[in-house]
Amino acid sequence: MKSIIHFVSLVLYYLIVNKIPHKFGGRKLRLLLFKCIADRVGTNVNILPNVHIGKGKKLVIGNHSGIGVNSRLDLTNSITLGDNVMTGPEVMIFTGVHHYKDTTIPMSQQGSTSEPVRIGNDVWIGARVIILPGVTIGNGAIIGAGSVVTKDVEDFSVVAGNPAIKIKQRKHLKTS
């Protein structure tokens, strides 16, 4: 029964609901279907139109998080978004990669591997960011627009570029 609900939810999502604007109830419908498609979806999650998630399995989204318009999540392996994660438009997160080292065999015949991507809490991912397999983004990190994240990002770091490099560390503000 669960697989039938998952399949019907996927069909409805990709054929109809994925394209409905917020003002016509798209936000609530996408959230409802994502709860049937993904492994876990927290409360107050915001999925914008035209987000591609394949079959949606292996996806975990924390509370108060959102996925930007036209984003693409490759769920060859798992993707976990913590709480309060903001992603800009056209973000791409990849978990799979093709093998290529043996030059005597075409790359298309060498197989592939996958590694999970983990995104911590209170993370801001700018527009058109690409995150590659196996990356962990720490809590409180900021990823600048257009960056390609090829390695782990430390907690409270600000990174940008291709490949993304650390620009600065966010300061902890003490309140009295």
From TrEMBL:
Gene3D superfamilies recorded: Hexapeptide repeat proteins
UniProt keyword annotation of Transferase present: yes
Coiled-coil stretches: none
InterPro entries: Hexapep (IPR001451), Hexapep_transf_CS (IPR018357), Hexapeptide_acetyltransf (IPR051159), Trimer_LpxA-like_sf (IPR011004)
Domain of life: Bacteria
Listed GO MF terms: transferase activity
Protein keywords: Repeat, Transferase
CDD domains: LbH_MAT_like
Keyword flag Membrane: no
Name of this chain's protein: Maltose O-acetyltransferase
Species: Aneurinibacillus migulanus
